[in-house]
């Protein structure tokens, strides 16, 4: 298996780890267990990883971390929409 394929599989698995949380929040509209500070730090980190991927021209890094930026930004938006 090539390094690129391994990188893409690893990126998909780690990026997809937040999908169940996102679905749960959308269904229940309850963000009481979310930390907005944690999401801001995570979004900052994966955004920098995405930028690094562009600098190195590494598609697995760009795709997986770009997806994470979008997903975690969605969670942060949900936090502000559904907080009580």
Structure characterization notes:
The chain is an all-alpha fold and 84 residues long. It is 82% helix and 0% strand. It is built from four helices and no strands. Helix 1 runs parallel beside helix 4, helix 2 runs parallel beside helix 4 and helix 3 packs antiparallel against helix 4. The protein is elongated, with a radius of gyration of 14 Å. The termini are far apart.
- Biggest sheet features: none
Report how far the terminal alpha carbons are from each other.
48 Å
Give the H and E element order. Answer: HHHH
Q: Write the CATH fold name.
A: Monooxygenase
Structural class determined from secondary elements: mainly alpha
Number of domains: 1
**Strand composition percent:** under 5%
Gross morphology is elongated
Which architecture per CATH?
Answer: Up-down Bundle
Q: Helicity level, as a percent range?
A: over 70%
- Count of β-strands: 0
